Amino acid sequence: MNRPDRLAAARWETRRQADALSGAVAEWDVLPPQPWDVIELDDALVRLLDQILYRFLKLQDAMGERLIPATLSALAEPFEDWPMRDRLDRLERLGYLDAAQWLAWRSVRNRLAHEYPDAPELRWAALRDALAACHALLICASAWLGKLPRGSPGSAAGQTVG
User: With 0-12 CB in 10 A as exposed, 13-18 as middle and 19+ as buried, what is 64?
Assistant: First the structure.
C-alpha cells in the first residue's frame, strides 16, 4: 500500500473508531451517576460500558498500529527501525500527541485486559480510569487527524473526526 493509501486507511479507521467511541461516551455522559454495583446489575448499562471499553481499545489499536506508522511515513520520517517509544517521542516533538499521556492510556488498556473477579475495587478503578481517558483520547485523535496533510478530495484521507 502506498503512502497516501496507507494514510487514508489509517485516517478512516481512526475516524470510524473515534466516532463510535464518541457516540457511546455521549450516551454514558448524560446518564445520572450510579454506584458500580447498580451498573453491574443493569444489562443495558453493562452493554454500553462494554461498547465504550471496546471502542477505547479499538481506537488505541487503530492509532498505535496504523495511524502512527502512516503519519510518520507521510512525513517521510525513517521510523521503520525505531522502537515505539522513539516513534511516540518524535510524534510528540511534531505536535501530534503527548507521549506520556499515550503511555498512560496504554497502561489503562493493559489494566482493562485483566479480570479481577475477586477484587471489584480494582476492576472498577480500571473502568473509571478508562472512562476518564476516553475524552482525552478522542481529543487527541481529532487534533491529530486535523493536523495531518490532506488527501485528495473525496478520499477518506480528507476526513477528520468531529
Answer: middle
